[in-house]
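Lecture notes, part 5. Sequence design as translation. It can be helpful to think of inverse folding as translation between two languages: the language of shapes and the language of residues. The source text, in structure tokens, appears below.
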């Protein structure tokens, strides 16, 4: 049977673990939210680029560059990995 001192010490040892689990859960939720936002943002930007290309007299919307295949200034490919 556990006495009060042992129970108190066990509860104190459990506190950091609780906080680590909460931080891990919050971090994973933030990563999921950012991935979701990134995906929807690329969709919006690609539609806008296609609409601009189409309104500028482009023969087809597929001729317009998309965010997913456009190169950035540093030469790295843009878009989702």
């Amino acid at each position: 049977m556990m006495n009060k001192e042992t129970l108190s010490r066990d509860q104190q040892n459990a506190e950091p673990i609780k906080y680590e689990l909460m931080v891990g859960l919050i971090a994973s939720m933030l990563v999921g939210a950012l991935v979701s936002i990134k995906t929807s943002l690329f969709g919006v930007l690609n539609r806008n680029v296609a609409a601009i290309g189409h309104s500028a007299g482009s023969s087809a919307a597929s001729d317009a560059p998309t965010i997913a295949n456009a190169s950035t200034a540093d030469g790295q490919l843009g878009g989702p990995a």
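The translated text above is only one of many valid answers, since several sequences can fold into similar shapes. The chain has a mean pLDDT of 75.
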